[in-house]
Amino acid sequence: MSSNSTYAIMLTSTIGYISLYINFITIIAGTIGGICNLITYSAPRLRKNACVFYLLCATILEIFSILIIVPTRIALDSFGNNLENQSILFCKLRYFISIVVPKLVTYYILLAIVDRCLATSSNVRIRSWSQLKVAHQSSMFVLIIGTITGIHILVFYNIFNAKCQVPAGNAYTIFFAVYLVVIVSLLPHTLMFIFSLITFRNFKRTRQRIIPIVSGVYSVRTKRSDSQLITLVVIQVIISSILVLLRLGSYTYSTLTSGNLNKNANEIAAENFALKLGFSLYYFSFATSFYFSTLTRKFFRNIFCKRVRALYNFFQHLIN
């Protein structure tokens, strides 16, 4: 056996174990964390806050991704399921869901930081846009537009050369690569970065004017809660930005070179290594928001604990 073959086999085996462990951790930790986020964000104290509503939408889609997309990937990679290369319908639906749903999560997080930017503005008219009614309309708009702009995946993804992929060597290959780079990644994350900077600047300048999370007289406690909400969103922005770049590079390269039939075993193994690792880490970011964001902020940690105690007492009352 040649050294090249040995290297390819070792690389394939290594990423198989690594991705399997990461994906299982994502499912377990992500499901628990997602449920905990739902418990926190649905608290009566937070229900009328537009930013929290966006985070709630993102959480629901994160849980969907963790419970649907990740197990499908495990079945394909680790248990010999080859359905995506055999069924055209499954091929199209799988890639549509695995690209569009995470894209929607990204844009909901973007809306959350935009809302905090609006809420911290010194302009009354701009601040008035930070309200639940606007959040409902904006979230529905993003859902519809985000879904429509991904329909081309259902049209063009197909089984070529016994593999589920985009057609190689035509204009759509370039279009799809641009779609991944610009629409799915660079645009939302660039806007997140810009609005995060503006939000911190606004918050520093106009702390007395920020729209509070809870109604009532503005207090030091409310200032802290708003500050922690901003920090929570920014932490999610940073984690999402870093991990999406890992997936983006490998995915785009794979798309652009899908028509190259002259790749040797090492090149194919290295490409699969990058793709699987990028996939696993990208969805692992969906499992981290509760532990790295919600749980580390005292305000939200207290709300979560109170909600858990209230739910515990409620079920205890039902049992008794």
UniProtKB/TrEMBL annotation:
Q: Quick check: keyword Transmembrane helix in the entry?
A: yes
Q: What is this protein called?
A: G-protein coupled receptors family 1 profile domain-containing protein
Q: Does the keyword Membrane apply?
A: yes
Query: Can you say where in the cell this protein is located?
Result: Membrane
Query: Major place of localization?
Result: membrane
Which key words are in the record? Membrane, Transmembrane, Transmembrane helix
Task: Cite the G-protein coupled receptors family 1 profile domain residue spans from the record.
Answer: 33-239
Q: Which top-rank group of organisms is this from? A: Eukaryota
**One CC-aspect GO term:** membrane
| TM region positions | 20-40, 52-75, 95-119, 140-160, 172-200, 229-253, 273-292
Which Gene3D superfamilies does the entry mention? Rhodopsin 7-helix transmembrane proteins (1.20.1070.10)
Q: Which organism is it from?
A: Adineta steineri
